[in-house]
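Can you give me the bound-state structure? Components:
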Amino acid sequence: MATIKDVSKLAGVSVATVSRYLNKNGYVSKEAAEAIAGVIDKLNYRPNTIARSLAGKKTATIGLLVPDILNPFFPELARAAEDAANEYGYTVMLGNTDNDTAKEQRYLDTLIHKQADGVIISSYTIQPDHLRGLQKAGIPVVLLDNVFSSDSVVSFTVENKEGGELAVRHLLERGCRKIAHICGPLSITSSRERTAGYEAVSTGTDWFTPGLIAYSDFTVKGGHSAMQQLLVSHPDLDGVFASNDLMAAGALKALQEAGRRVPEDVKVIGFDGIQLEMMSPGLSTVAQPIYELGKTAVDVLIGLITEHPDIPEDKVFPVSLTVRQSTGG
Amino acid sequence: MATIKDVSKLAGVSVATVSRYLNKNGYVSKEAAEAIAGVIDKLNYRPNTIARSLAGKKTATIGLLVPDILNPFFPELARAAEDAANEYGYTVMLGNTDNDTAKEQRYLDTLIHKQADGVIISSYTIQPDHLRGLQKAGIPVVLLDNVFSSDSVVSFTVENKEGGELAVRHLLERGCRKIAHICGPLSITSSRERTAGYEAVSTGTDWFTPGLIAYSDFTVKGGHSAMQQLLVSHPDLDGVFASNDLMAAGALKALQEAGRRVPEDVKVIGFDGIQLEMMSPGLSTVAQPIYELGKTAVDVLIGLITEHPDIPEDKVFPVSLTVRQSTGG
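Here's the bound-state model for the whole set.
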């Protein structure tokens, strides 16, 4: 009997794309849809992935590990993963690892012991050998936010460096002439890349000095105090790029407390694209495709669970600019 | 051999208190500590709850179901439950039921199938017969936010009505003379009780009319549009009590957009006590003891898992006023 993998190969598209096509669930290009439909006809493939995946398992479960449940990015990611998983008849069990390797390992042990069907891991700290237990137990993995140079696991990330460049160029276009940067933890790859994006555009300009970079920790409080420091050392700054939205929100608050008008005196942009509807002024940001990330991770993972195809290629998702009042609306 | 239940009975304190004492983990009054120490001596009780609970179970797991992962209240609750569970060597698997009874039931089935050791359920919608499967499987349950008039399950709630009264009285003390109310979904008991608190203080005053109550949905967007409506129907209002912090944040934003100064022209207070550090002005609120709720739920659940005592009494936790800039600081 033909499998989803056969369809994928003959149609020249990924298993995830076939899965999206079959479930009418997510974006499939017109050409891909036509190719898939042709192959399905030719192979007389019966798309009963869901029924088959459920037949052997009474309670199909996916584990999703996130590094910080208090950052709204991760509840939003979880919500997206859940929506996708529910369409396949799977439930998502969420674990908050708190950036703690020991806690992460305990969750992985639990997921192995409780026989999760697959695991999505968003982690800043995970290393290839931490996945051995899962691999031994035959439990497929999709990694988010972290890339191993390895063929044995699929990783999804976003264009972090390009996003940093996008943020700084946007501030320059809006008339900023001295742009500070609040950077996140240097232990986190995506954080380093966003800062590299800032540096790529700033270095060599007449206004740049390394003192315009303030180091912080991805929290509102951290962004608030980093902004206070920057206002003392560089009172003439007129733009701020923070490496995540929570720090940007803290920076906004510090600017308001210091009597600086946003966006008139200082323009602010964050990174992530989380829902911060309560912010006034609204926060401009470099948005990650959070919903698509969560959904694609599930699509690919279900493909790995139900069809055991080859490990798909890693994928880097594009980011996009969301312009709100904090950079002039 | 003496059990934790024996210690609890003889010392005249709850199993949770003994558990907190044994684990040096959370508040135990001096008198309770002395009583427990005396009984432990007398019974020669060996406090090896943790070792025993772990001996039979390689991966001790608690399920925690929450109704809305996008409301920061629930990630904060999860974080507290996790801290407590980790001290006992347990991991917490989180499920977001999205206020959807079918999804809730699927999670409960999964937790039964995966043999969770116990489940904490925060739910607006759950009914006693939804718990039958867990009870049949011998899996203990602690309910949050919902009380069954039943001895077979323990429930924790907070003083919702008293909290509503507290909020309105605080606004009156701060000089408000026409206080509007943004109420949450009427299907939710705690939401109805908060509104009952508002009514108890407001009804019979010379300024009250039922039109001062705007119905909304516990979201930022919902609070925002409810506030816009209220400003049209009651442009002379000078105080707002919203039944949760997210709606209060939306109301603040609508007031700022309408050019009303907070707190000078209009004072605003919410309910929940979630971390909204990015708000400017800072939001006054009726704070639930979120951390204590999560922690106590785990303490009691672990007691039920490891010692099978009688179902403890339901408990109503007190709320407290947190005064910030939005009501005058």
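A couple of observations. Chain B touches chain A through 44 residues (CB under 8 Å). The two ends of chain B are 56 Å apart (CA to CA).
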